[in-house]
Amino acid sequence: MNFLISTILFFLITFQPVLSQGWDYKVYSNPQKADKLINSPAKESNPIVVTSGNVFYFNRGFSSLNVGGIKDSNDVWVQKRNFAGKYETPYNAGNIINNARNNKILGVNQEGNLIYLNNTYPYLKIYKNHAICASKYLNGTWSSPFPIVIQGFSFPKSSSKIHVSS
Which runs of E-coded beta strand occur in 14-145? Predict the structure, then answer.
């Protein structure tokens, strides 16, 4: 009897936060291979879709169209969906966000106007133990990346793997 009560209490305490948030049932389609606009001879990674589904961010490495050229291991790229529902040709997010270093997108906020990036910006090296920075989309352009400083949190090395969800 004590085991049964303990099990029920454990379940209620452990899963209560999950149960109180409710379940969001969604129907997903079968995975589909991305078209040739995304799948290029370069290296694509870190796909991130904005909540609206109209903007798709990803990293493209070793492309001649990267800011640092073919030897540039990662730049942030953008692909938008047009009014007909088709994704347009992806484009490099530009030299405000990308430089000749390993620029990676880590996440995006729900509104799609703030992207989180790894810190590969020389002017931010004073924040060398803070691997996250962000850029805000204002008036049709991205801001220069700025550090996201989390009090008491730092990375011992710049190669730490990280993803952000907001």
Answer: 43-49, 55-61, 75-80, 91-92, 105-108, 114-118, 132-138, 141-142
Nearest of 38, 137, 130, 117 to residue 75 by alpha carbon = 117
* Type of residue found at 89: T
CA distance 114 to 108: 6
**Residue 94 near residue 144 (C-beta atoms within 8 A):** no
Are the CB atoms for 99 and 67 separated by under 8 Å? Answer: yes
pLDDT tens per residue, range 84-135:
988 899 999 999 999 888 889 999 998 889 999 987 777 666 656 556 889 9
Which residue type occupies 159? Answer: S
CA gyration radius, the chain = 20
**pTM as predicted:** 0.74
CA–CA dist 77, 96 (Å, integer): 12
Closest CA to 46 of 78, 81, 84: 78
Question: Cα dihedral sign for 157, 69, 37, 94?
Answer: positive
